[in-house]
Structure formats: structure tokens, C-alpha cells
Design goal:
Shape: globular
Largest sheet: 6 strands, mixed
Helix content: 55-70%
Distance between the termini: 75 Å
Number of domains: 2
Mean pLDDT: 91
Structural class: alpha+beta
Keywords: Membrane, Transmembrane, Transmembrane helix
Radius of gyration: 27 Å
Number of strands: 9
Strand order of the largest sheet: 2-6-5-7-9-8
Number of helices: 28
Low-confidence stretches: none
Protein name: Glycosyltransferase RgtA/B/C/D-like domain-containing protein
């Protein structure tokens, strides 16, 4: 078999989604049965990944222009992905103290990688039994009955655990930079299929240099993995539909690829529960495939169902308190999903006999679709002037937004959500040129689809337009940056880049055709290249400028890994830790419990009498009591000077800022300390 550049690019860019889906497919059942260990994962997970990577890429068809694809796009894409990984590894964060989500995922990973099961036992029998003064709940960890449930979905921790097994905390923390690079690679593959291989390096480079892609890849966020799965699902679905198969044909490669694509899509729910919203267009698209008698329809929906079931089991089986917390938004989403499935079944049955409507025969419809797309973008642009958004529904969020407003010198309106600024957020990170080109690109794509042209764009357009619209309408996130950029990076920013690059390719081809019909010298003939170069700079330049002036020049929470190891080493083997400061308990309890392995509880009322009672109960169990607090004097007063408190954790490091009306620049300072006082059982 010849090593054609087009074939290599098609298969290499599909591998991340294939490999990660195979791992999740094998690893999650191990967590369900409580045996997610390095050995069982090696026995079951590694063969699944190897088999999937060996067999599935063979089913991927060669691109139509595969014979004409040069080597330079393949090499450029790989260089961009490798360079991205190297830079992000060099600047990776060490977020282990819970302040926001990255450390929550890190602590989740540390627990299942070390123990292999959920839920987390409170181990109250090793502290003070059922003493009512003790609490076991902390930020992102819910106390229910006699166990503790982590907040988030299991997908990202299952993948990050591989890094933990290979390299401990450092190995875990550098796994996400690798995932971010694989997301860039996957996006390049999708661009190569929809726009052309020669345009894939430009799209990959724009995504790689934009601030949100770099930022989420430096932390243990779930977004890089979700990005790989959702973009990878689009990529594999494109390949599955490249060959026409009737619903009555025998099972073959296209049907297998369709099933894999559906599974990859569905496993996105195992990573992020809000992926249910993003996948609703896939359900409608399956209905269109069935009406068109395409043989890939049933395998696609079958794979999708398996992946979604994995996600729902993970959510309601292992993160139910979190889903209960999200019920105000999740329950309507589940209701809407049920309506979409029912409507798809009804419409598929109704259209089964007559086939798909011939939209190309309605002369006014293509231009109307294009105009609606442009008007929607205009609506998002003028939204801050006409419909400023208010109402977080959370007093804590109101207080945080008000605090950031005071720092920035803005009018203090804590209920201001800034959701009306969502299109401007995109513009901050990829530039006005990309937003403008994307608007024109999506208008042209929808126009052509309505004319039944460029049909391979149908599923990507359905999914991306739906996700961009719903996300920009309601990002549903605390609006400070770079935090809020998380909502944009999985699909929204890739969608803008993809449509913008497609429009640039269309514009270049248009110039080439125009030049071919005119007589002119070398300057005229070079017009397409000049247009392409200038437009590419206009897309790439703003993204580079925002990142260079932003927060990419430092590492967050540097020194936390070393200090965590020092803290864990300072604890006696039979230590039971009692955190006597409620604010500190929310941040540090999971670190003490999940990483150090010490039974840990917090005291809401750290009065001397209560502390003495709990310490006595710990000693009665033959264990050493360890009091923990953020300041020396907290402990000195509780021990009456009988034990000298020591500080075994102290980090002063740079951390991300928070901004509301401009891209983030500079940094704030994180100052974290843990003082401990060891009260041995023998005393």
C-alpha cells in the first residue's frame, strides 16, 4: 500500500478520537465494577486501543484529492501539533488546590487512579465516628449519607489517570497539553476533509495560537477531550458517508465507520453532560439518512445510543448530586431531547414514503437562508446595545461578578451576566476578520446546502450552527475571562475558524476563476495568492496578538506539586486530619484525602471544646490526630502551645486574572499555606 500524503493525513487525524473512544469504552466499565486499576486497564484497555487503532483507520477512504495532496500540509499539521504540545507542557499549570474546576478534575483523577472505585468513603470510623461537628463536604465534592461523590463526569479523569499511572501528579498534569495538541490535529483533519488538505495547516495554526485553546490545554479541564470526541465524530461521520450505501446493502466498512462515529459522538456525554445539547442535530441527521435510505443511518444511531448510555450511567450513577445541582437546566434539556427524538421518529415515518423535500426547487429559499444567517450574526453584534442580560440565579456568582467589576472600575451590577457580549468574546480571541469571514462562510454554506450542493457539509453545518447559536445565546457560565472562554473552545471557536477558512478558500478559488478568464500580466495572475496570503494574515494575526498580550507567559500554581508531596510526607502513617478552618476545608480537603490518602474532615465550629472532643475520639481509635489550618495562630490557640505548628505547604505563585470587558492580561497571585499540628495518640 502506497504511503500517499492524503491517506496519511486522513488516517492520522482520525486516530485521536478512535484511540480515546476505545479507551473510554473499556475503562468506564472497570470503574463501574470498582476495578479500575493499572493491571486491569492494561489487560482490557490497552488491547482495545491497539485493536481500534489497527483496524478502524483501514476503513477510512482515501480523500478524493488524495493523489494530488503534497507532503507539506501533512508535515505542517504534524509540526503544529507537536509544537503546541511542547509549549503547553513547558507552561502547564499545577492546579491541585481547588479554587475552580481544574483541581476538581485533578483530585477526581487522583482518587480513581489510586483506588479504582467510586464513591469515596468518608472514613468517619477512622476520625470521630458520627460526631455532628464534622463535615466531609468540600468544593466540588458532595457529602451524601456516609460517602462522598465527585462533582463532574468520569470521562476526563479516566483519561488523565493514564498520565497519573505513568508519572504521578506531574504525569497527570501534562496529559491535558497532549490532549490539546490532539484536538488541534483532529481539527486539522476535519478542515482537510471539508475545505481541503492545503488549508488544514492554516486552520490548525489559528486554533493552536488562540488563547482559549492554549489556556484549557494547560489545565486538567475536560474541554480538550470533549473537543477531540465531538470534532472526531464529525470527521468519522464524513468518512463513513463518503461512500453511498443503501439501507438494504450488506454490512461493510461505511456502516462500521458510521457506528464508530456515533459511538465517538455519544461518548462526549461521558466527558461533559452538556454534550447532550450539542448532539441533538445528530439525531435529526439520522432521520434524514433513513429517509434517504442510506445504510449508515442505523449504525450511526446505534453507536450514538451506546455512547450516550455510557454518559447517562456515569452522570446518574457517579455524579448524581452534580446533576441534581444542574436540574434547573438539565431537566429541560432532557425534555427537549425527548421531544427531538420523538419528532425525528414522527417526521421520518411521515417522509419515508415521499422522500426528502426538494428545497432546491424553492427559488427564494437559498438566498433567504443566507440572509437569515447574516441577520443572526448582526443580531448577536447589536445585542449588547438592545438586550443586556441579567440574572445569574446565584448569590455567590453575583458577589463574584460585583467584585471583579469593582477591580475593573465598572458599574457594580452583580446580576449582570454579560451573555450579550458572547460574540465579542469570540472576536477577542480570533479577531474581527475571522468573525466576519465566518459569517459570510456560514451564509454561503447554508445557501449551497439548500440548493443540495456540498452535501458532505450537512451534518457539520447542522451541529456547528446549532451549537454556536445556542452557546452564544446562553453561555451559562460565570462571565469572567479566561474562565468563560471554556464555553467557546470545544466547538464554537473551531466552528468560526472552520467557516472562515472555508470562505477564504472559496474566495481564493473565485479569484482564480476570475483571473483565468482575463488577460493580464504576472501581477494579475498572482492576485489569488495575494488575496489568500492577506486574508490568512487577517485571520491569524489577531489571535496571535491576543495570546501574546494575554496570560500565556507564565505557569499557574508553580510549586504546588512539590509542596503537596512535602505535605503528604509530613503526615504520620496513621494520621486522621481535622481541618479547623471552613474556608480552607473547601480548598484542601480533597488534596489531603485523595492525594495524601489521609481520612479528612472539617470542623464547622473549631472551638477548643469541640476540637478536644474530636481529637480524643481520634486517639481512642489508636490514630494520630492532625489539625490543619491556613495560619499558625489558628493552631497555636487550639493546642495551648503544647505542639509547635509547622507549615509543610506554602505556595506563592502566579494565577489567572479575571476580566469582564476585555481579554485577560497579566496575572494575579495565589498564596496558599497549610499549617499542621500533629497530636500523637500516645500523648
Amino acid at each position: 500500500m502506497r504511503l500517499l500524503p492524503g491517506r496519511i493525513l486522513a488516517r492520522v487525524t482520525a486516530l485521536p478520537a478512535i484511540a480515546l473512544s476505545a479507551w473510554l469504552l473499556a475503562a468506564f466499565p472497570l470503574l463501574v465494577i470498582g476495578h479500575f486499576t493499572p493491571l486491569t486497564s492494561l489487560i482490557l484497555g490497552l488491547p482495545a486501543v491497539v485493536a481500534a487503532c489497527a483496524l478502524v483507520p483501514r476503513l477510512i477512504p482515501d480523500p478524493p484529492d488524495g493523489e494530488r495532496v503534497p507532503w507539506w500540509p501533512v508535515i505542517a499539521v504534524l509540526v503544529i501539533a507537536v509544537a503546541f504540545a511542547a509549549v503547553q507542557i513547558a507552561f502547564h499549570a499545577e492546579a491541585l488546590v481547588i479554587r475552580r474546576d481544574p483541581a476538581s478534575y485533578a483530585m477526581y483523577t487522583a482518587w480513581i487512579a489510586e483506588n479504582g472505585y467510586l464513591p469515596i468513603p468518608q472514613q468517619r470510623e477512622l476520625i470521630a465516628g458520627d460526631d455532628p461537628a464534622l463535615s466531609y463536604q468540600s468544593l466540588a465534592y458532595y457529602q451524601r449519607d456516609d460517602v462522598i461523590w465527585p462533582q463532574f463526569m468520569a470521562g476526563a479523569p479516566l483519561v488523565l489517570s493514564v498520565g497519573y499511572w505513568l508519572g504521578g501528579l506531574d504525569g497527570m498534569l501534562v496529559t491535558t497539553p497532549v490532549l490539546g495538541a490532539l484536538g488541534v490535529l483532529t481539527f486539522a483533519g476535519l478542515t482537510a476533509r471539508l475545505v481541503g488538505a492545503r488549508w488544514a495547516p492554516l486552520a490548525a495554526l489559528i486554533l493552536a495560537v488562540c488563547l482559549p485553546q492554549q489556556w484549557v490545554s494547560r489545565f486538567t479541564y475536560s474541554e480538550p477531550l470533549a473537543q477531540i470526541l465531538l470534532l472526531g465524530g464529525l470527521l468519522l461521520a464524513f468518512d463513513a458517508l463518503a461512500r453511498n450505501r443503501s439501507i438494504t446493502d450488506r454490512w461493510g466498512g461505511p456502516q462500521t465507520l458510521a457506528a464508530v462515529a456515533g459511538l465517538v459522538f455519544g461518548l462526549g456525554v461521558l466527558v461533559r453532560i452538556d454534550a447532550i445539547r450539542d448532539l441533538l442535530p445528530v439525531v435529526g441527521f439520522v432521520g434524514l439518512l433513513l429517509v434517504a435510505r442510506r445504510g449508515q443511518g442505523l449504525p450511526l444511531v446505534g453507536g450514538l445510543a451506546v455512547g450516550v448510555i455510557y454518559g447517562l450511567v456515569a452522570g446518574y450513577g457517579f455524579s448524581y448530586p452534580y446533576l441534581d445541582y444542574l436540574s434547573d437546566s438539565l431537566n429541560p434539556l432532557l425534555l427537549i431531547s425527548s421531544v427531538v427524538v420523538f419528532a425525528t421518529v414522527v417526521l421520518t415515518a411521515a417522509l419515508w414514503r415521499y422522500g426528502l423535500p426538494h428545497t432546491e426547487r424553492v427559488r427564494w429559499l437559498p438566498n433567504t437562508m443566507a440572509a437569515l444567517a447574516l441577520l443572526t450574526m448582526v443580531g448577536f453584534a447589536i445585542r449588547p446595545l438592545l438586550w443586556p442580560d441579567y440574572g445569574h440565579g446565584s448569590d455567590f456568582t453575583d458577589q463574584w461578578v460585583a467584585a471583579v467589576q469593582q477591580i475593573e472600575g465598572l458599574p457594580v451590577e452583580g446580576s449582570r451576566t454579560y451573555y450579550d457580549m458572547s460574540l465579542y468574546w469570540v472576536g477577542w480571541y480570533v479577531g474581527l476578520g475571522t468573525v466576519l469571514f465566518a459569517a459570510l462562510g456560514v451564509a454561503l454554506v447554508l445557501r449551497r446546502l439548500t440548493q443540495r450542493r456540498d452535501l458532505p457539509w450537512l451534518l457539520p453545518a447542522m451541529l456547528l450552527v446549532w451549537t454556536v447559536t445556542t452557546t452564544l445565546l446562553r453561555p451559562a457560565i460565570t462571565p469572567d475571562h479566561p474562565w468563560a472562554s471554556r464555553r467557546l473552545i470545544v466547538l464554537v471557536i473551531p466552528a468560526f475558524i472552520l467557516f472562515a477558512v472555508w470562505f477564504l478558500a472559496w474566495l481564493t478559488h473565485y479569484c482564480e476563476r476570475s483571473v483565468s478568464y482575463t488577460r493580464g500580466g504576472s501581477m494579475v495572475r498572482s492576485l489569488p495568492a495575494v488575496v489568500a496570503a492577506c486574508a490568512a494574515v487577517s485571520l491569524l494575526g489577531p489571535a496571535v496578538a491576543t495570546s501574546a498580550a494575554g496570560i500565556m507567559g507564565y505557569r499557574q500554581d508553580v510549586g504546588t506539586v512539590a509542596e503537596t508531596e512535602r505535605l503528604c510526607a509530613s503526615l504520620p502513617p496513621d494520621a486522621s486530619v481535622i481541618v479547623v478552618d471552613s474556608a480552607m476545608a473547601g480548598n484542601y480537603m480533597p488534596l489531603l484525602r485523595n492525594v495524601c490518602g489521609a481520612p479528612t474532615a472539617a470542623l464547622a465550629d473549631p472551638s477548643p471544646e469541640v476540637v478536644q472532643r474530636v481529637v480524643s475520639a481520634v486517639h481512642e481509635r489508636g490514630r494520630d490526630a492532625v489539625l490543619a489550618a491556613p495560619e499558625w495562630d489558628h493552631l497555636d490557640g487550639l493546642t495551648d502551645g503544647s505542639v509547635e505548628p509547622e507549615r509543610h505547604f506554602h505556595v506563592v505563585a502566579e494565577m489567572d486574572p479575571s476580566t469582564l470587558m476585555e481579554p485577560p492580561t497579566g496575572h494575579w497571585t495565589f498564596n496558599g499555606s497549610v499549617w499542621t499540628a500533629v497530636l500523637p495518640a500516645s500523648e
